[in-house]
Amino acid sequence: MNIFKIAAAAIAALTLGAASAFAQQAFTIQIDGSSTVFPISEAAAEAFQQQTQGRIRVAVGESGSSAGLRRFCRGEIHIADASRPIRGSEMEACRAAGIGFVEIPVAFDGLTVVVHPSNPLSSITVAQLRQIWSPGSNVNNFRAVGGPDLQMQLFGPGSASGTFEYFTEAVNGTARSSRTDYTPSEDDNVLVQGVTSNPGGMAYFGLAYFEENRSRLKALAIDGGDGPVVPSRQTVENGTYAPLSRPIFIYVNAAALRRPQVQQFVQYYINNAARLSAQVGYIPLPATAYPVYLQRAQRRQQGTAFGGRALIGASIEDVLARPLILEEVQQ
Amino acid sequence: MKKNTLTKVALAALATVAGASAAQAQTAAPSHTTSWTGTVGEDRYGDARFKLRGRFQYDIASSEWDIAAGDDGFSTYVRRAFIGAQGRLTENWRYKIDFVLDPGNSGATSEVGVDDAYLEYVTDDWSILIGEHNITSPLEDRISSLDIPLIERSAMINAFGYGRLAGLGFLTGGHNWSVAAALQGDSLNDNTAQGTSEQTAVSGRVTFAPIFSTTPEGVSLIHLGLHARSRSREEDASLAYSVRPQNGRSTSWINPGIAAEEDVSYGGEAALQFGPFGAHAEYTILQADDGVESYDLQAYYVDFYWSLTGESRSYRANTGSFGAIAPRRPFGEDGGLGHWMLSARYDYADLSEGPGAGRGEQTAYAIGLDWVPIDHFRFKLNFADTEMDRAVGADAEAQIVTLRTQFDF
Fold it and tell me: pTM (2 decimals)?
């Protein structure tokens, strides 16, 4: 049977070709998600790769909390960085794809509203922020919120961002509802750049990006009803910087934690989270919290402490006190 | 056309496509394209969603029989051409319809058929379907023709008449189980004359995945399932059973000639996936009754597949079926090869009870090589050797080579 033999030979040749061309690659831990969490994950990845002398590679992306969790629940990445708790619809997507997750709060952020240093405005109320950022707002001059006669230039995170979701929920009352006539970017450095080069610039992002650019930006004190409070380690820790204080997380694929490389990296991340988060400008959790989360990773305890809902204005104490709603570990 | 020219044609086709897409990858985005809004992703209007769907499968096949009565030949044909839409009007009310076009037959008939054609009311925990569907079919029939490992489904699916029927369906499931039940008449593609009662079918399927976890390295899965169906022809055409050689369109050499009034079938299914390796196996028995006598038929198959480029097939636990494989590194993107898969099948059907001279057993072996350069484009090359052993009279053997080119959107 001539044709059969020729065909079989062709298949064998193609197979060999394909198999040899598919070179084995070094194991790479894939991380993507929040640009707010990115500086901590990047610092952890760098230090870990140095410590393991490059035997384990770690790639960190920053496509935003929502985009990261979407990829996480499709099984494309090992770890999702998130500046908000996982949502119910994302838990559903993960579950349908056979993905269990381990939730690790890594630090606290004080979401910071910044203006150009030359702007005399130094504080703003939550109600004024809502005036500026609510959908359909036509506030385009700082005069309207008690500032100078200065045209506003607004910059903000894109819609895949957890910071966008948190800010719109905390300030406008509804997640993802915002005016749209501002310059969006998922890259916080672009937002920093926007404000530093425009005297009328205003933006909001994670505290770390303010800390890194302290000399070129001015953080507004936020008045949530009890007087203006400047974001700082102290005001976030004592819970007075509200409602813009929030926990930030990593979500780890529970089955991937069986891999020694992933387990080792996550343990390294948790053991160094206090140091690294402070280093890049966030507020570490109390020292007693990390051993609890380390155990959670070691035991691959799945589930969330936040019920798939948004969490607004919670203090560090609130977050630590929340029990994890455990899901059964498969197998 | 000479037989071994087919292989050359097949390889040339693969090479041409490979070359073309490599060239494509190096140029800027094409300014002329056949895609438009709606083919990629979906359109959204508030809560409503709409997505245009389509699939096209074009086969080049050569078959060679060892008996004069067989169907030696070389042919090209459109295996499937669907155009349709899916969407929802609210979160709860959804629809899907695929119209089946048949270009090869357009000279003879102007009929347009339907594949899936149903509306679905969806809640968080369950859904109800009304229309043409196959939610209680065995595993291999539940997997889209775009995503089955071999070019054609097994003898079991074809001989026992699994497929879509019109009626009611109920589906529920969790993160590792599913239950489906259906009460159906005949297919919407089969118009029964007025004044006669069409066939009825009651069926069910349960699946359970004791192991199911996904990481970027792949899927770990054990899938188990059971299904059962009871049909009655009423005043519709008799229920019949026959089987063609694997991956071919030629004569059904094994045909036990049963004209059944009723039948009952039940079977078990198992599937494994561990990273790039996977297997399916299904076994079904069918008892047919023609009003005089009853006949026991059985069929099973085992498929193995191996992704040379490392991908796992995706699994949907809440419907107990497999989905598409998207290449980890699409062809032409920084040295990516697309997805390459090897597959092998052992397929057996025992139709040796029946009044007809064509009763007997069929055993088929098939191997395949698949290439998915980018998601939604796929080439499948299959070689199948089928032994058809009649209980009386001439045995036959057929060897069939098929190259499929397919895309969907």
Answer: 0.82
Can you read off the two tokens belonging to residue B387? 């032994």
pLDDT in tens, chain A (331 residues): 455 566 666 666 665 555 555 545 578 999 999 999 999 999 999 999 999 988 899 999 999 999 999 999 999 999 999 999 999 889 988 988 999 999 999 999 999 999 999 999 999 999 999 999 999 999 999 999 999 999 999 999 998 888 999 999 999 998 889 999 999 998 999 999 999 999 999 999 999 999 999 999 999 999 988 999 999 999 999 889 989 999 999 999 999 999 999 999 999 999 999 999 999 989 999 999 999 999 999 999 999 998 888 888 888 888 888 877 755 444 3
Cα distances (angstroms) measured from residue A210 to each of A48, A92, A272, B123: 26, 35, 22, 45
Strand partners, A153: A201
Q: Which residue of B has its CA nearest to A16?
A: B308
Q: Which residue of B2, B7, B178, B207 is the best one to mutate when testing the A interface, meaning the one whose CB has the most A CBs within 10 A?
A: B7
Rounded to two decimals, the ipTM of the complex is 0.78
Helix axes A2-21 and B3-26, enclosed angle (nearest 10): 20
Distance between CA A32 and CA A42 in Å, rounded? 10
Distance CA A232, CA A35 (A): 20
**C-alpha distance from A107 to closest chain B C-alpha (Å):** 25
- Given the structure tokens 């009003």, which residue do they identify? B291
Residues of A in contact with B213 (CB under 8 A): 98-100, 254-255, 330-331
Name the percent of chain B in helix, strand, coil, to the closest 5. Answer: 10, 55, 40
A298 in Cβ contact with A314 (< 8 Å): no
Q: Report the amino acid identity of residue A228.
A: P
Question: Would you say how long chain A is, in residues?
Answer: 331
Q: Which two tokens stand for residue A146?
A: 């008690």
What are the b/e assignments for A187-221, b being 16+ CB within 10 Å? ebebbbbbbbebebbbbbbbbbbbbbbeeebbbbb
Paired with A219 in beta bridges are: A114
Positive or negative: CA dihedral B31, B35, B41, B44: positive
